[in-house]
Amino acid sequence: MTELSWQKSSFSSEASNCLELATAPDGTLHLRESDDPATTLALHPLSLRSLLTTARREIPRRF
After folding, report:
1. Alpha helices (H) in 1-63, listed in sequence order
2. Would you tell me how many other CB atoms lie within 10 Å of the CB of residue 32?
3. Per-residue pLDDT of the chain (63 residues; tens, 9 = 90+)
4. What is the pTM (predicted TM-score) of this model?
């Protein structure tokens, strides 16, 4: 398996509480929580777009 290069979200304020994203050579996007790096979610880019769109609609903003 290819080693992924993980990037931390710019919205993460603490090193131990962040979402990380990596792109595989085939274009699949991988998400993981920094507290549990062994567990990942692999998504096609359009599926990630749908997930984020739904989250924005359903989760009230705290700001």
Report:
1. 45-58
2. 19
3. 578 999 987 776 666 668 899 999 999 999 998 888 899 999 999 998 998 888 888 777 665
4. 0.70
